[in-house]
Amino acid sequence: MSTVETALERIAQSVGEGGRKDPIPFHEFLQVLTDRPQAALRNIFQLFHDMIKSHISEGVDEYPDDPESIHYALYDCSRLFVEDTDNPFFADRLFANRLINLVEALKRGTQQNKIYIFEGPHGCGKSTFLNNLLMRFERYANTAEGSTYETVWRLDRRVLGSFRKGETNVFLDKLENLLDEYELRQSDVIAAKNSQQTGDEYIEIPCPSHDHPILMVPKASRRMFFNDLFKDERRVLEILGDKEYDWIFRNHPCTICSSLYQALIGKLKDPIEVLHMIHARPLQFNRRLGEGISVYNPGDKPLKQTVLTNDILQNRINALLQDSNQVRYIFSRFAKTNNGIYALMDVKSHNVERLMELHNIISEGVHKVEDIEENVSSLFLALMNPEDKQNIQDFPSFSDRIESIKIPYVLDIATEVEIYRNIFGRHIDESFLPRVLHNFARVIIASRLKTESAAMKEWIGDAEKYRLFCDPNLHLLKMEIYTGYIPKWLTEEDRKRLNAKRRRRIIAESEHEGEAGFSGRESIKIFNEFHSMFARKDRLIDMSVLRKFFTKIRPDLSELIPAGFLDSLVRMYNYSILQEVKESLYDYNEEQISRDIQNYMFAVNFEPGAVERNRFTGQKLEISEEFFESIEGRLLGAAADPFRRRAFRKETQNEYTSRTLTQEIVSEGKPVTETGLYQTLYQRYVYNLKEKALDPFLDNENFRRAIKDYDTEDFRTYDKRIRDDVTTLIANLVETYRYTQKGAKEMCIYVIDNELAREFAAP
Questions:
Q1: Is 657 strand, coil or helix?
Q2: Alpha carbon 537 to chain centroid distance?
Q3: Alpha-carbon gap, residue 687 to 693, rounded angstroms
Q4: pTM value?
């Protein structure tokens, strides 16, 4: 085979795989139904749900054991909105949870008689969201996994044209046969041109409303039919007892299918023979052709032709059934999206008229086509800007038919950063010190939040107690909650107060945020300017650069940033990295610390001057004021006066004798290292060691230079103690906090040059 033939063969094969599948007889469809009932019995709402869930994996709850969890999960929407798209849409955690809640409600059967309006400000990505959603739906619905079925009638002309006793006399019978023969020859010519039949013996009539084949079973007989079809009672109950399958027993077929059924029953007298003429085929969705998916832009003018038909097919139906009034093959454009999706891009201009036209359809589920009623059961979607709400305010009866789903500007830190990475490349991380890129996102998101939050104020009360970690308006804390993270710096009391009710109130406030501030387009433009201006190979972007950009280079942007937010953000960052440096520099002997604590717990029971052997460590102790002072200096800090130290010593001795020794050690048999007093003293000891870890280096210029010269030949010239300390510091920052070596060095220089240890020194 030549290369040309190979290429053509491959095209033919691919077209064949993706083309419309041949209809299967009704009895074969019933076999498919019994094998895979959940897949074969899907209306548009169930199909939409299955499409979403097939592209979004199970959500991740970072606090699964929290009894106050509200199941505010992390959903990865990249397969749905990002992968293989020309213009990706990034759903933040808030919107992803709204979307999942919506599709779960659709599956449960609460989908009827509503239009779902996705509302958001300019630049939030509404159009991108809907286009990507419909593209993904169309692809999914046209696969084997996503297939749903529609009805196709195949009228057997040999059966319908055969002689039946009592119907006609011999003369009329012969005449009918002659007419049939003539009509057969004429229709064959037409069918060859219009592809309306599958062979000489059939007339194929597709249901223009895409009715599900199961609706062809008479409504009164459907429950009995399913009981007979499924012998397994459990499987029957799954269908008959589940709300999502209510439509099977509630819905009627379209008027065309109903009239066809009645005409055939009248002619054949046998329901089984009628059902033999019903076939099923996978419904093919095609947005461009308006099949199953129709999308209207505000500028699309209404169609002049409101009633659609097929004259050739109508003539053939009339000739075969011999009654021109019995089956009228007419329908509206709404039939093409029955059991499909009807979408409006922005409710303005001509789309306002279309939305109003949907009022009766959504209210009653029917649409009048001349003198017949057409069933319409579609998933109605629309996009709306906040200012366009006035277009529907004059129709109060419509308000209960609308469900609004907010698409605000991104309020989730992680999603905002992911947008920058997608547009500018993931390499942008290499230009920033850790946390600084996310802090840029925090500045942008702060502009989108309401100044005050009743829910946050009711929960936290006075924000001043968290001034090292948060801003006066608690925006930084709220962003963490929106991102799904509960900060560790919260007090135990406030952590316990964050119950499910409070958490829901905080999340609910997002419904009214993200409508102002920097839009998605503006944030991308601002980030591009910022990154282009400061990204350098020889130096990473730190917080001083970020502050400089928003306060000196682009002070106009500060007008949208809450007052004091930048200062709080810098303070939080400085305090956090200072703790990282202290933690990384801390390298004390854990065994020695443990011995000191046990010795102190034992020694407080004796007066200075005593010599005793510690029952816990076996060590002989010379108990003196100097002994107590050395350990209490680490427990209370070097600034503690003698009165404070003696009071603390007395408190410790009381706790030891009243609870630790008598209850925990003697009664409960706990090792001394597992007692509450030991744990408390250990934490105090370690905390104070870390707090003072930087003190020896604050005024040591050699220490700063050694950090800069780390991993160079000059580093060898420094004192061994400094080399060891710097090596430990850099190694721990890289291993524990995932800094690059370059980032660790620059961050340490930032801490030293800005004298952060002195700024946050305990009073």
A1: helix
A2: 36
A3: 10
A4: 0.81
